Automatic annotation (TrEMBL):
SUPFAM superfamilies: Ribosome-binding factor A, RbfA
One Pfam family here: RBFA
Name of the protein in its database record: Ribosome-binding factor A
Keyword check for Thylakoid: no
Cited Gene3D superfamilies: 3.30.300.20
Coiled-coil ranges (or none): none
InterPro entries: KH_dom-like_a/b, RbfA, RbfA_dom_sf
Keyword Transport: no
Keyword set, alphabetical order: Ribosome biogenesis
GO BP terms in the entry: rRNA processing
Length: 111
């Protein structure tokens, strides 16, 4: 991956995290932007998010997707990019898997 793509990914991750924090009204829900992976042509970006508590994941993704066009407009004005990629929002399940592994290790230690 080129250095430019890495820089764009990090800028988008930071800016999207700020936009979610400022524009989504979800009480009792924590949404974290884990990573952004942009295609080499900058037309598409896969945005991985983590949602706590997990039972609000579907609702959180639905609300984020509703604000997708707002996020794109704000980023177009704010960032000096020729193109703002289309965002594909996905849930990052690594946190859940890590918690399950830790729980299994703790159970093994207790037996």
């Amino acid at each position: 991956m080129s250095r430019r793509i890495e820089q764009v990914n990090e800028i988008l991750r930071s800016e999207l995290a700020n936009l979610i924090t400022g524009n989504l009204e979800m009480d009792g829900c924590l949404i974290t932007v884990i990573s952004v992976k942009t295609s080499p042509d900058l037309r598409h970006a896969r945005v991985s998010v983590s949602v706590l508590p997990e039972h609000l994941t579907g609702t959180a993704l639905q609300e984020i997707r509703k604000k997708n066009s707002l996020f794109s407009r704000v980023l177009k004005k704010k960032l000096n990019l020729k193109l703002i990629p289309k965002f594909n929002w996905v849930v990052d399940a690594n946190e859940r898997y890590a918690a399950e592994i830790n729980r299994a290790i703790d159970e093994m230690k207790n037996t």
